[in-house]
Amino acid sequence: EIVLTQSPGTLSLSPGERATLSCRASQSVGSSYLAWYQQKPGQAPRLLIYGASSRATGIPDRFSGSGSGTDFTLTISRLEPEDFAVYYCQQYGRSPPFTFGGGTKVESK
Amino acid sequence: QVQLVESGGGVVQPGGSLSLSCTASGFTFSHYGMHWVRQAPGKGLEWVAFIRYDGSDKYYTDSVKGRSTISRDNSKSTAYLQMNSVRAEDTAVYYCARGVRAGNFDSWGQGTLVTVSS
């Protein structure tokens, strides 16, 4: 099973600042089968990024993903008030289990 | 638009069974694999189970394997999760999610809370 480790656990930033979130896998994530989700309190998660760098439908271009192999990054270029939330990475591929990272909380400073 | 609605949550006694349903609308249900993902209170996300679009393959996370069954009825656009011998650690919000691209989740239900308690 591939274990995903996200860092930092919490990121304290102000609106307009750049956020950089990290996700490291315990072994290579084949063909960049890495996704990112956003979750706000009391809501279901929302898919942001799939295939490590492709934005899902309707996701603003301030969200971008990069990386391959075992190291992946989600970048929010300029934080908007609605971006303060918890972000999870997830690996997927040919067969389960489909594991999630522990999450990074982006909070307002 | 795509809509997924879970039902069946509530309080279940330890050792009992839970039965959840996920009713889909707004898309051709029989074309998509479906997943269950859970989230314990204050914790992260945990993938639980997956069923292929035609029900031909089913997968489970280790912690529920052997005591859970995922199924679907494409004529009713509904997916199901049954879990037996539930434990306190099964307490969570259970989400159903539509599967795309070999295993990510592009649409989610609002979730249903299952509490295992005597």
What does this structure look like?
The complex is a heterodimer of chains A (109) and B (118). By secondary structure, chain A is mostly beta strands. Chain A has strands spanning 4-7, 10-13, 19-25, 34-39, 46-50, 54-55, 63-68, 71-76, 86-91, 104-108. In chain A, strands 2-10-9-4-5-6 form a six-stranded mixed beta sheet, with no helix packed on it. In chain A, strands 1-3-8-7 form a four-stranded antiparallel beta sheet, with no helix packed on it. In chain A, a hairpin with a 3-residue loop joins strand 5 (46-50) and strand 6. The model of chain A has no long low-confidence stretch (mean pLDDT 94). Chain B has 118 residues and is mainly β. In chain B, 0% of the residues lie in helices and 54% in strands. Chain B has no helices and eleven strands. In chain B, strands 2, 4, 5, 6, 9, 10 and 11 form a seven-stranded mixed beta sheet that branches. In chain B, strand 5 and strand 6 form a beta hairpin. The A-B interface holds A 33, 35, 37, 39, 44-47, 50-51, 56-57, 88, 90, 92-103 and B 35, 37, 44-47, 50, 59-62, 95, 100-106, 108-111.
How would you briefly describe this protein structure?
The complex is a heterodimer of chains A (109) and B (118). Chain A is mainly β and 109 residues long.
Low-confidence stretches of chain A: none
- The residue ranges of chain B in which pLDDT falls below 50 over 5 or more consecutive positions are none
Strand proportion of chain A: over 45%
Enumerate the strands of the largest sheet of chain A in spatial order, edge to edge or round the barrel: 2-10-9-4-5-6
Report Rg of chain A.
13 Å
Per DSSP, what share of the residues of chain B sits in E-state strands of 2 or more residues? over 45%
Find the structural class of chain A using helix and strand composition. mainly beta
Counting H and I runs of at least 4 residues, what is the number of helices of chain B? Answer: 0
Helix content of chain B: under 10%
Give me the number of helical elements of chain A. 0
From the N-terminal CA to the C-terminal CA of chain A, the straight-line distance is 36 Å
Helix coverage percent of chain A: under 10%
The count of β-strands of chain A is: 10
Name the quaternary structure: heterodimer
Average pLDDT level of chain B? 96
Helix and strand content put the structural class of chain B at mainly beta
